[in-house]
Amino acid sequence: MKRTIKEEFEHLKILNRNRAVKLRVKKIKNGFSLFLDYWNGSKHEYLMTGLHVSGTVEEYQNDLKKFKIALKMREKQEDKAQQKDKGEFHLKTVSSDIATVDFIRAFAVNRPGFKKLLNYLIKFNENPPLDKINGRFGVDFLEFLQRQNLKKNTIYLYFNNLKTALNYAVRKEIISKNPITVSAGKEEAKREFLTLEEIKRVNQANTEYNETKQAFLFSCFTGLRLSDIVNLTFSNIVDNKLVFKQQKTGNNEILPLTKEAVKIADRQREARKSGKVFNLPGRMTIGRRIRKITEKAGIEKRITFHCARHTFATLNLTFGNDLYTTSKLLGHKNIATTQIYAKIIDEKKKEAVDRLPEL
Length: 359
Fold this sequence. Notes:
The chain is mostly helical and 359 residues long. It contains 14 helices and six strands. The chain has a three-stranded antiparallel β-sheet with strand order 1-2-3. A three-stranded antiparallel β-sheet has the order 4-5-6, with no helix packed on it. Helix 8 runs antiparallel to helix 10 and helix 8 packs parallel to helix 12. The longest helix is centred in the first third of the chain and has 34 residues. The N and C termini lie far apart (91 Å).
């Protein structure tokens, strides 16, 4: 005889036994919310699954499916936690004479962005003990990367990752100093953005991906990064202000919303009342949808979601906001980062002047 969903909740006591990550249930207005609870080494952390069940007999089958999805999410979270623990354990136990490749391998366990660096270090075929690395090693590895048919900014990323890992080793007193002083050059990436006219065309574009479109437009009028957009809840919007912690910097921010951003947020609230402001798919799917939306709008530029942040910056400067204020609205620590957008606007002004006819 099958259990009711509430009996499934009771069964959780057994399912949670001896598990690092526990699936929990919270009563909400129209049913129950499922979330994960785990100890990160210093405090409890709670991860919302985004799954809600009704608890009614009529919805039992649908509720059970969601319940099973939540259990799979728990397993994935446990795998992540175990991988992280494994990496940190190895890093805590290493000594200065560990082979460089082995150190980077342990460092990369819970840092996916360092896996490519590890692969190239293995190909490099020089593997001295960590405390024997010298400046020559850095120069030779940089020259090796430059022979690998990689883009300049990719070389910059991998080489900087190596220096980051060595700086970590210094902070943890595994080695006394970072011997690599040479730097890899970097090309300034083109910061594509939309004009106000192009934003209007995106807004008017008829698309099946309206949720993604609304999130993109919201970013155009707030400057929020995708990582902040996907985690944004209605509780972060207070008196037409955004109150949130930036995912990238960890800084707490209070930012006033533009009138257009308020309109978008209000429409989203009418559609779902509470929870996340935008229900979005994964990053790659978002990227594909943004390209389709901008194509529908007749925009030939290569637009990514992050271009919305560039758009917000250029709109502010174009319509007269000063550099300092724009910097604060973007959450930049260094105003020099914002000055890049000022240069873009200056270039556009020069292009406009150059287009004027001669007598």
